[in-house]
Write a structure and sequence with these properties.
Length: 91
């Protein structure tokens, strides 16, 4: 069974009250499908179903392995490196 080896990176798990959208897509005028939030730094990016895949790109470029869904009502998290769901609960 696979498990995440990056839980020591978790710093931010609570979503902000309001999220305007994918930070990078908003800068360039692009669109996104779903939003993810990095639990290391709080950066909001778009999912891999979005054209730019900013959340996974952020994980790869910045080494921040875990992101949580930033969609209303969703509480799951994902480790991009270990490719496994992670039990990171909001505080």
């Amino acid at each position: 069974m696979s498990r995440c080896t990056h839980l020591d990176q978790v710093r931010v798990v609570e979503l902000p009250e309001t999220i305007a959208g994918c930070e990078e897509c908003l800068k360039t005028g692009d669109r996104w499908v779903h939003l993810r939030m990095c639990v290391s730094c709080g950066k909001v990016g778009c999912c891999d179903s979005s054209p730019n895949k900013h959340a996974s790109r952020h994980a790869g470029e910045d080494g921040h392995a875990i992101a949580r869904s930033a969609e209303p009502g969703e509480t799951w998290s994902w480790c991009y490196v270990d490719e496994v769901g992670v039990g990171v609960a909001p505080r």
